[in-house]
Amino acid sequence: MSRFTDPIAGFGRTFARTAAGMTMDLASAAARAGEVAVDTVTGRDRGVGVLRVQVLILTDEAGTALSTPEQITPALTAADRILRAGTGVRVRVTGIRTIAEVPPAAALDPRANRGLVVDDILGRTEFYRRHLRDRDGPADPAFVGAPITVIVVREIAGHTTGCSLGISADWVITQASLYNAASENSYDETVLAHELGHALNLPHHRDRTNLMFPESSPPHRVRGTALSRWQRGVVQANRHVLPGGREPGRSGPASDLG
Ligand SMILES: [Zn+2]
């Protein structure tokens, strides 16, 4: 979506929110330090930080799940590879859950961009919010390192396959057909990472080789996965990213850059 047409304004908001989140929730960050310590002890390479992501797969009226964990996993792996290469931030998947409760039509086949903003204001995204809560994490969504939830919906209105409300929501929506490898005209591993980028406050980028290029048309015109230095800074400073590990290019091993 193209909500953040002014990158400077978006940047200011990132810092305002990051500062507020850190002040408000140092206790949560401390609670998460246990997780960091475990990785330090086991010697796992954490990069400069960790972004926790969970996936919720919706179910249609017939009771059929729209996708499977096996189908979603390649896009999650791609998001980890893309963010690690471009920012040093790792993606840690905290869970892929199928929601058995059949959602209302507006949640199963949602609108995009401005329509989704309006629906969010009107409370039509309540179904998502109710199922968002990371069962293992704190209830307060403002804490540092709050996970981003990727919701797999059936169909998004228009020619859109993914949508994010930017940093104002801890969730993004993606269309189930993106993950169906048997459908080469819709299968696209870049969309999940692109929507995570919006949730991390990245606006669109004009370069087709960049992850934040607005359009991607599989199978032959899929957007690139590059990220600029400026984008790296925005992602690393984000309230969703739990700091940890080494700065790539300084003292960390080459594997930091994936
Ligand atoms: Zn976009």
From TrEMBL:
- GO MF terms, alphabetically ordered: metalloendopeptidase activity; zinc ion binding
Q: What is the lineage of its organism?
A: Bacteria, Bacillati, Actinomycetota, Actinomycetes, Nakamurellales
Q: Which GO terms describe its biological process?
A: proteolysis
Annotated Peptidase M10 metallopeptidase domain ranges read 183-217
The reply to whether Transit peptide figures as a keyword in the UniProt entry is: no
Organism in which the protein naturally occurs: Nakamurella panacisegetis
Is Hydrolase set as a keyword in this record? yes
Q: For this UniProt record, give its keywords in alphabetical order, as a comma-separated list.
A: Hydrolase, Metal-binding, Protease, Zinc
InterPro entries named in the record: MetalloPept_cat_dom_sf, Pept_M10_metallopeptidase
Q: Which domain of life is it from?
A: Bacteria
What's any one GO cellular component for it? extracellular matrix
From the Swiss-Prot or TrEMBL record, give the protein name: Peptidase M10 metallopeptidase domain-containing protein
User: Which region ranges are annotated with the description Disordered?
Assistant: 238-258
